[in-house]
Backbone:
């Protein structure tokens, strides 16, 4: 029997924030979440900002340590085998960090060298990826600080794919992009999954994106996974005609913009 590429069981993560001189409040960002993703599957986690999506992705990316629960990515468990997990994942986030004074080429070659890759071969691979994403070669030597949000996100995707990872963790990769850049990224991910069989975990609050890209979808609300299934199953279960209406029915809330837990709780004890 085929084993899941990603397996999460009873995952919990809380943050605390100082609310007074001697008082702290606690927020349960990830509340007893369990799900799995099969090899080659694209699985979507949908929820508004503040629902726990980014906290969950950060745990799987080894950037946070869960309070409790079980996480296994391919043959490795977290947090014990975090070093091994970092070698098999690519991560793209809505707030990707770069050396903004350096060019796209310099940023990507720096990453290649960190992973022990041949710089020339890495550059060829990156140029192919950026071409598929609709980025002009001339932009490759432009400092990141002079690039648009959409261009920077394409560089972030290329960076995550430099090692051809079997697992790709995408935290709202198209948020804030213009319509053309969003379509370029979505088309690229479809082609990548079809061509390479990459397992993809995608967080988003874009219902159309989830329907287009994801085989199965999980609804997150207030840190809990309240429903999962295919888009058709979720709509049938809720008696809704659209995935957006299904989300409102099954979670009791709308996909509205809020501050994310990770930013709202800047003064956190992890």
Residues:
């Amino acid at each position: 029997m085929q084993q899941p590429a990603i397996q999460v069981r009873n995952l919990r993560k809380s943050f605390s924030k100082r609310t007074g001189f001697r008082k702290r409040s606690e927020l349960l960002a990830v509340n007893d979440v369990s799900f799995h993703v099969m090899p080659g599957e694209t699985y979507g986690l949908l929820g508004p900002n503040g629902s726990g999506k980014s906290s969950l992705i950060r745990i799987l990316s080894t950037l946070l340590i869960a309070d409790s629960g079980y996480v296994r990515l391919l043959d490795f468990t977290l947090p014990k085998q975090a070093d091994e997990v970092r070698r098999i994942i690519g991560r793209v986030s809505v707030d990707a960090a770069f050396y903004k004074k350096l060019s796209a080429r310099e940023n990507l070659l720096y990453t290649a060298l960190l992973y022990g890759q041949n710089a020339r071969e890495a550059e060829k691979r990156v140029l192919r990826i950026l071409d598929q994403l609709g980025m002009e070669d001339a932009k490759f030597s432009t400092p990141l600080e002079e690039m648009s949000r959409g261009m920077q996100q394409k560089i972030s995707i290329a960076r995550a794919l430099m090692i051809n990872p079997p697992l790709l963790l995408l935290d709202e990769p198209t948020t804030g992009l213009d319509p053309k850049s969003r379509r370029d990224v979505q088309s690229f991910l479809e082609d990548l999954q079809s061509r390479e069989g990459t397992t993809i975990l995608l967080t988003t609050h874009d219902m159309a994106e989830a329907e287009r890209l994801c085989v199965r979808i999980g609804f997150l609300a207030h840190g809990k996974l309240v429903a999962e299934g295919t888009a058709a199953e979720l709509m049938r279960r809720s008696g809704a005609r659209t995935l957006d209406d299904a989300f409102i029915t099954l979670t009791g809330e709308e996909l509205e913009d809020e501050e994310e837990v990770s930013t709202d709780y800047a003064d956190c004890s992890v």
About this structure: Confidence is low (pLDDT under 50) at residues 257-270.
